[in-house]
Amino acid sequence: MLSSASWSVRRRRWVLVALGLASVGGIFGGASWSAGATQAKEGVAVAEQVYKQTPQGELKLFVHYPPDWKATDRRPAIVFFFGGGWRQGTPNQFLTQAEYLAQRGMVAVRADYRVSSRHKTTPDRCVEDAKTALRWVRKRAGELGADPDRIAGAGGSAGAHLAACAALLDPAVLSDPADEASISPKPNLLVLFNPALELRGRGIKNGEGKDISALISPNAYLRKGLPATVMFFGTADAMLPDAREFVQRSRKAGNTAELYTAVDQPHAFFNRPPWKELTLIQTDRFLTAHGYLKGEPTLPLPAGTTQELVREP
Fold this sequence. Notes:
single chain, alpha/beta, nine-stranded mixed β-sheet, 8 helices, 20% strand, globular
């Protein structure tokens, strides 16, 4: 039997492997992604917007507008960040979710950000870019037909970690000096698909070789006044205990936090049917409960679906 110390070490290694390899096989968009690959679907218009110029190149947002959208609207918005261990992945990961939520009436945004495979950067730059993206959306809410006070942050794995960091870290921490500091990067809601939440002790370094594991560990910042949060995990995911800790401590501080699990499913389970549909339907219900959507979900489940998400107490 493994000692608790040995299990802790093995679990830490597994988490880092999961974050880095979850995109294998095209789960997070794959190498075939290109900026021009987006297509309008069933009345949803898609626009590309450059939100940031970096030394490694420009970064874009892909904005999905509802069929009856007008610039004078004040619609809720959601910003998705892809996963891939801060090393790989593309904005195509959340194309289905963005299209669906735009059809339901939201302004849905997919964000590109710097990753080591394409930009030779470190995770602190990923956090920096996520904050810039959220500030960009909030600043231009009037042009996007969005409500600056109803912007949800969302993502998968490392991307969910970025959304959580934007919400929990001090706005000045890991912010681009070129950002307008007066504009908050904090999302008003969080929709997190198996996020990395506890990174302390995992040897994550910035470009100067400094250990930033604690600095970018969301569970180190749990306190009162955080956005309402929903999370999705497979029960075979080694990061699930960190999510349970987040939920317990966040609720104790007076926040709203929900956790749904998929029995026996691994990390990144939500990218495959029927879990993609099940998690998206529950996301719809969460957004509706917080006034971001109205009515019942319109997404059908794949034929013959018997699986269900389990809401943890």
